[in-house]
Amino acid sequence: MDALILSRLQFAITTLYHFLFVPVTLGLSIFVALLEMWYINSGSYEERIKLKKLVKFFGTIFLINFAMGVVTGIVQEFHFGMNWSEYARFMGDIFGAPLALEALTAFFIESTFIGLWIFGWDKLSEKFHCLCIWIVAFGSNLSAFWILVANSFMQHPVGYAIEDGRAVMTDFGELVTNPYVLGEYSHAFFAGITTGGFLVIVVSAWKIATDEASREIFVRTLRRAVLYTLVGTLGVMGSGHMHAQYLAEGNPMKLASFEALWETENPAPFAIVADINQEERRNDFEITIPKMFTFMVHNSFEGEVKGINDLQREAVEKYGSGYYIPNDVRGMFWSFRAMVGAGGLMLFIVFVTGCLVFFCREKIKDHLCCLKMMPLLLPIPFVANSAGWYIAEAGRQPWIVVGLQKTAVAVSPNLSAGEVWVTLIGFTAIYLFLAVLAVFAAVMFIRRTHITEDEE
Amino acid sequence: MDLNIVWFILITVLFTGFFILEGFDYGVGMMLLGRPKNERSQFVRAIGPVWDGNEVWMITAGGATFAAFPHVYATMFSTFYLALFLMLLALIMRGVAFELRGKLKYSDWINFWDCSIMFGSFVPALLWGVAVTNLLRGVPIDFQMHYVGTFLDLLSPCALLGGIFFVLLFAFHGTNFLLIKIADKGLLEELQKKSFCLGSSALVGYVLFAAAMAHDTDILSKPGTIILLGLSIAALIASCASAKRGCGCRAFISSTLSVAFLTIGFFTALFPRIMVSSLSPEWSLNIYNAASTPHTLTLMTIAAAIFVPIVLLYQGWTYKVFKDRVTPADVHYH
User: pTM here?
Assistant: First the structure.
């Protein structure tokens, strides 16, 4: 393997790992902020003690996750220069701006106000303390927005010109209002709400089942988390659908690839399963719902959806001879099904849990066994998030910036395969090691913390 | 003044902020070495509320370099590939350590994370010293702005001397920060002695480093650099003297000035170059051949003019909120 493929692998591993924590930060920060508002608006003394403990409880889980997100995020910022120096040269005029703006407008406030929030319980007024976590939530989401502005340009370049062999910015407004940003950001935002909410559901359910002293407060938390996650799942589905429809114009090759639609069809069927043969550019076997793909794209059963083979021909006309099909159509196809399946499963789980906590509250005691098993479901949102990014990034290949620069020429020319092997193994090892320690710390903390009316 | 110069100044400001703020964070981290658990907790608590915001200065310096001088970002980061990898490992361990060390009460758990903080503070301090020395001396960069040397070329004896000098300077600076943050009288006296020792060692390191640089490079050909380095050394001496007399506040302000003058002096020496090619002066990256377009520079100038003062305002305010000294009672639960 050469430095290029190793660098790609390293970027994929570190990005996916980073994005385990990002959605939790996006969603859980807002949830903790809502909990704190509940706390400062609550009445009785006993209630206040419990709610303050509850805020600190989920706050601590948030902080462990936040720390992991921050440190793995620094790696991502360094990567563009370390492994992708030719990309940085070609794109710096455009790509550097949102990255610098992220640090300047978002990362600074997140990092400063998180310190105030952690250590400011006795130093700040209640309302101001609550405002701090809202600012952290706002900063995190703004941070995600800038990163997705940068990523959207790579998926769908706008507001640029090519001068002296590099891309230069001509209109910053267009960069920010890139229609791709709307789809990506709303999808990521709601994925964050879903992931954060689902984590709270799982933790609350487990505490209800295993910690009798804290049961009452976690039942109430669970009710809020169910509603929160419901909003998230519906939002993530709506924004995903909207974005997929947009892809039909914005990046039809990606859309056709994750649906494994090789030939242009009108109306196009939707493949539920397919045995994809990328060499011969067809599916050897598939089970389809007729007209369904057309319906999903056009909201009607009439309409053309372009297939991969036609799009390849168009790309050859536009960019000259070459292979413009993402090289892992099979992976994209199944990732998409994993993502959508995970989303549907979460909606179902939220619905069932919601029925239990809202309509059969007195029967919760009969279902402790089920609630205790809930942590086994925790991987679901994370599978969905990772699969989503895999589709987004694998679907951009062979381009690093669609239509402007190919991934193969973007890698740092001075790197040897040996050097990248060292860092690839190093990052993977330390990430696995830290995951074990962070999960261990979180589980021990969750197990040992009781939310009762007793003062500390 | 053209925008390229404005951005050179802004990058200087960001690196100065980074070295001042993370300088004492790294220093405090290194000071955990050999201290009992209770004192380590006090040290960590002293920087706990602020270290994360301080680290963003480095991220912003990196991001701003990317936006304003993309070729510098590309060449620098790919040149220092393995060094940055080591730095990232160190920063990862350190960042997670601050959050996880207090989560469980086992001694081994806390000791492990304190080791991570020490390692995670020492390695970046050392590597920044190595990087700065290499930037001043120049590295083999070819006509396409590509680094053509190896990792070991970056670890010359001179660069290691620079690294050790940075470690000593930051350790001194961090000890001075503790002088204004720790309440315990007995501990303070110990720290004062330590500060004086470290300050004197840093001074020796400084002189050796400056001599090596004067021998190898043209930095002393610029009067501005000579004045700034002179001021920096004077501030370091003043800081040492203050530490010996027990004036923690003065010691800290002086070491802050020393780090600031050093950083500004270093950038003055480079100007208008940012990365010097040791192969040919024409192949050096400077503020013109490595820059973004005027359009992007204008945009980023507006953004910086608005947001840098705001950041300074709320970050400064945070220091005010946490101005109290840390007492042993503050960390009894850790």
Answer: 0.91
